[in-house]
């Protein structure tokens, strides 16, 4: 290597490149590693998922200024006796272990087996580190420790500021070490998982020194497929070498094997081309040794504490524990989402583009396809003569056409019946509702059977090399087509009384997806707990309804389990009556009437101008959000107006609000929970409409009918509990720390005029103050912020 590019001062970590060679890699490196030693970067490139010799070839073609670094990495790769491993580990390994690059981040010399670590002693050390004692946290930790040791079901509502993550994580690590038991921690959001990995786990390990091995496992679609990655790089090296090189370098430097770890500019264009497919050969794949998914699952099965999400947990249960391996103790955080995640996992959906996504990677290409020719050449002795490739192409083409004709027949049927083709449309008894689909279904299944007959001899034969690899791809494609072919008749027949069926339409009235979901998951979830778990702990800041867990127990079927369910409410230590003002009404009237968006825009303009604080408005529908945004357009504000659904992600909108004094954010759906705005990042929160479920949503409508048939009131049993939970989650965005303060404005007059208003008001963290008109409301907010006692 030329001397002007490489200076070796006797230490591997002191190797430096000049001439901008290192700067060329900055766009492809994780932000938190841009100061990493140069030799570490070269080492990762040498062990990367794409052969560094291939990257050198592409770099020379494209004139990449970082070529000297790649050439040095190639020399390291050549010197490695076994080529090394491709990925260092999942995100947890990087975040918890800093510079450590093995799966043993939390392994080491801890307390001797048999020594009993006291929860109180552990939290005493935590208090000395943080300079703060939390009695509620210790109380919750004792309950978690007892449940993990003695088995059973425990529900804990832990208010904001309790520190519930440490309250379950510390006893989980203690019990796991002492009893040799694995503990699964399941969350709903990725943000909470990363918080556990980046903050709570390092602190808990510093205090306990238990040597607990921890893994973070995500769904397969989050991991890079080594085979597809290499194919994408090789496929682009002639037509677009710069992009191919960027992809290969970024995947190596991430060291994590996840699509998320790639720079956004790289991942945005290739995610669906390089992530792990829904079906694959796993250990039988030729690239198994380099597969990040296999590595992540192996680490998870070997770890004492495993952090997953609710969806992956349910998938593992349905697959008989094939993903996570055996465990008997589980902690659900963000447990108010468990029921919905279980329901989504059990739902069936068939999309219009589904058949194209399956067939496109394997269909014979026009003008000849060497993959298929190679496959059939190896099968000459077992498959009778003929133009097999053309026959397969014809069958796939016919299958695709019949599939799209089926979707077209559904559209025509709904159009003739005069049924709305917007949003979601529920239907009952598909035989009567969709008679025009009978023949298209038969035609589709005819072509499916024809394709299966053509491919069965191909897929059962013993082939080798590249032919074997392509044979596997076709096998998985046919398996996915089989799943669709089983689902379509079930969904369109719609005669299962325990399920709800609906169509999803695009804004132009085009059918996108046909869907089916179970009406409830209580029995299935109870079976899961009874079969798999000795201990199941559920926790959230909004798990109870005015101190009562009945609604949550019913949703999850916990009342069906033998034995008692323990319950605990640990109230927030925050002084909400001093730190938070809740104002209601303001004379706005019923939010369902015409012109409400105009009135709302007027009030928001005055609030933001006169109170002059960062403001977020939480909407229950995009329609009202968009209508309000239109009415605000052109008005002068002290800060920007940020609107969800207009191109920016939730994270980008939240970041813009944090950086914009007096900014106004109009948020829907995902802003009601899972995003934090501590301190002055958010001081004014507006809720224009109480967040009741939409009664025409298919699942809500079907559940309401079921409750009425049982002689129960859907409003009391379904709508009100859901509204209370969501209100509490939304208000929770405002006060995140003991020193935070802010004002909540609830403009829906029904909270004072309807009988159910008292139940909602009593669930709020502090007593509400009524304001008869907008002027009174704005004046009260201004006084509260200007009061020096705050």
Radius of gyration: 29 Å
Specify the overall morphology. Answer: globular
How many strand segments? 20
Question: Terminal Cα separation, in Å?
Answer: 65 Å
Mean pLDDT: 87
SS-based structural class? alpha/beta
Tell me the fraction of residues in β-strands, as a range.
5-15%
Q: Indicate the low-confidence ranges by residue numbers.
A: 1-15, 81-86, 90-114
Helix content: 40-55%
Strand ordering within the main sheet: 5-6-4-7-12-3-13
Number of helices: 31
Query: Largest sheet at a glance?
Result: 7 strands, parallel
State the gist of this model.
This protein is of the alpha/beta class and 790 residues long.
What report would you give on this structure?
By secondary structure, the protein is an alpha/beta fold. The strands form 4 sheets. It has a 7-stranded parallel beta sheet, sandwiched between helices. A 7-stranded parallel beta sheet has the order 16-17-15-18-19-14-20, with helices on both faces. Mean pLDDT is 87; it is low at 1-15, 81-86 and 90-114.
Descriptive keywords:
31 helices; 790 residues; globular; 20 strands; disordered N terminus; alpha/beta
Give the SSE layout.
Elements: E1 6-7, E2 16-17, H1 38-46, H2 52-62, H3 67-79, H4 91-97, H5 119-130, H6 135-150, E3 152-158, H7 164-179, E4 183-187, H8 190-208, E5 214-216, H9 226-236, H10 241-254, H11 264-274, H12 292-301, E6 305-309, H13 310-318, E7 329-332, H14 338-346, E8 348-351, H15 354-359, H16 370-377, H17 388-417, E9 424-427, H18 430-433, H19 438-460, H20 465-493, E10 499-505, E11 511-518, H21 522-532, E12 535-540, H22 550-556, E13 565-570, H23 576-579, E14 580-585, H24 596-611, E15 615-619, H25 622-632, E16 641-643, H26 650-658, E17 664-668, E18 684-687, H27 698-709, H28 714-731, E19 742-746, H29 750-753, H30 757-763, E20 768-771, H31 774-786
Parallel strand pairs: 3-12, 3-13, 4-6, 4-7, 5-6, 7-12, 14-19, 14-20, 15-17, 15-18, 16-17, 18-19
Antiparallel strand pairs: 1-2, 8-11, 9-10, 10-11
